[in-house]
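Tokens in:
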């Protein structure tokens, strides 16, 4: 009897695994591509994306994709993008599947392991880019190869674009370059991209989020300059002290709390997933109650960032000698701005907060922003239905992502973009851009299957 029970349990587990993760052949393919991508040093400043593009192209050609359907090119030789087209019947406009292949820099001395080695340990894949964004890049390529092997005939072309320089933007950004120089390669009815993922807390899946809008980024430089002097004769007018006081005031300041259409919908649905007293606060926050928003913002950094514009110091420089008064003190301040708030409003507010005319507040770089994507019923229903199939009882919730993605450029160009991945992560331990970045092994494979099924459902005849 025990043996029979054990056999039944094993069979149930196998059936469940078959429903929620790809076949072994496809899991191993995705893992192999993932490992290859992670171990290519494609740091925004010190690496190159071209080797990733070339590695993806080799995989596709081996799987039978013709050269004519694969494009490699970019703004400069080391910043190439790869675009591949899987042909359908053409009954509908194409769908674009996007992921970026550059990563934030990572120093070996900051990590407990080599950030550019793909390491599987204790149920996680470790390495720079495992979460942002080489998991989705690997899955798009692996799934496209699977569609071809299975003979899937979609009613629209499926385009995969793996692009350069999302992390820092600038003149070599792959999406901007493709829109300007080869729009025909990526023109689509809509795009699926990063920016939305599954939320977990305490090992329990909470929601599978779909990003329909995002904050935009303003980079400021706080700069103080004066004549300096000899360090043996200090004076109150010290550039470093001016800057330190300004940053202290910034650290104590919070922009006003508010909701918009997307974040109100998010908090309204989150209220149904929580118990009192948080349940009531979430519902009231969705309706714009200030006290409830304040309490919700204190629960997590993510909710605080969802409810307001944020500005934080990220870099420092100053002084030119140990025995000299500083002639320069400066800080980089990175702001993530609610889409409805203007650049002038943010700059004026910071000037009021700093309240020191010795501190110059300068905008550095471009300030791109884009509209929200419409909450299309076909996409929202497909995501919700599939989420409930793979993770019964887990809702799909629209979100405004706190960071920024290349979806901004596509939305501005008239290609609605939705951030959806199906990779579940502990919302209190998301390691994008940080030390020991990682992705759960099971989460990766479940996300692979989720994205495989989602693209099929949005492309079926």
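Residues out:
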């Amino acid at each position: 009897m025990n043996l029979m029970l054990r056999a039944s349990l094993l069979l149930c587990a196998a059936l469940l695994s078959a429903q929620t993760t790809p076949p072994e052949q496809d899991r191993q393919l995705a893992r192999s591509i993932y490992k290859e991508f992670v171990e290519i040093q494609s740091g925004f400043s010190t690496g190159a994306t071209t080797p990733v593009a070339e590695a993806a192209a080799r995989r596709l050609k081996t799987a039978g994709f013709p050269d004519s359907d694969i494009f490699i090119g970019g703004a400069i030789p080391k910043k190439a993008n790869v675009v591949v087209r899987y042909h359908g019947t053409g009954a509908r406009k194409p769908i674009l599947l996007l992921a970026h292949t550059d990563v934030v820099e990572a120093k070996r001395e900051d990590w407990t392991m080599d950030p550019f080695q793909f390491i599987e340990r204790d149920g996680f894949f470790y390495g720079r880019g495992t979460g942002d964004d080489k998991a989705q890049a690997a899955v798009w390529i692996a799934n496209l190869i699977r569609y071809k092997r299975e003979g899937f005939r979609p009613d629209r072309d499926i385009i995969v674009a793996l692009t350069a320089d999302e992390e820092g933007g600038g003149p070599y950004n792959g999406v901007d370059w493709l829109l300007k120089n080869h729009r025909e390669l990526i023109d689509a009815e809509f795009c699926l991209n990063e920016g939305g993922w599954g939320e977990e807390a305490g090992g329990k899946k909470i929601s599978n989020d779909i990003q329909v809008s995002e904050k935009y980024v303003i980079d400021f430089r706080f700069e103080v300059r004066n004549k300096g002097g000899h360090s043996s004769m200090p004076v109150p007018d010290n550039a470093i002290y001016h800057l330190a006081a300004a940053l202290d005031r910034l650290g104590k300041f919070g922009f006003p709390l508010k909701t918009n259409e997307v974040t109100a919908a998010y908090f309204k649905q989150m209220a149904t997933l929580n118990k009192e007293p948080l349940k009531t606060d979430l519902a009231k926050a969705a309706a714009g109650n200030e006290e409830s928003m304040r309490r919700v913002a204190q629960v997590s950094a993510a909710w605080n960032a969802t409810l307001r514009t944020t500005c934080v110091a990220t870099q420092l420089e100053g002084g030119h000698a140990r025995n000299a008064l500083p002639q320069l003190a400066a800080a980089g301040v990175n702001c993530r701005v609610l889409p409805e708030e203007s650049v002038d409003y943010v700059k004026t507010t910071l000037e009021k907060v700093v309240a020191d005319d010795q501190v110059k507040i300068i905008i550095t770089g471009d300030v791109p922003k884009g509209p929200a994507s419409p909450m299309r019923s076909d996409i929202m229903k497909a995501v919700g239905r599939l989420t409930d199939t793979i993770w019964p009882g887990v809702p799909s919730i629209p979100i405004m992502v706190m960071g920024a993605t290349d979806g901004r450029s596509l939305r501005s160009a008239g290609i609605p973009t939705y951030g959806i991945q199906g990779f579940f992560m502990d919302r209190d331990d998301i390691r994008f851009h940080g030390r020991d970045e990682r992705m759960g092994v099971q989460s990766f494979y479940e996300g692979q299957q989720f994205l495989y099924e989602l693209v099929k459902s949005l492309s079926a005849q």
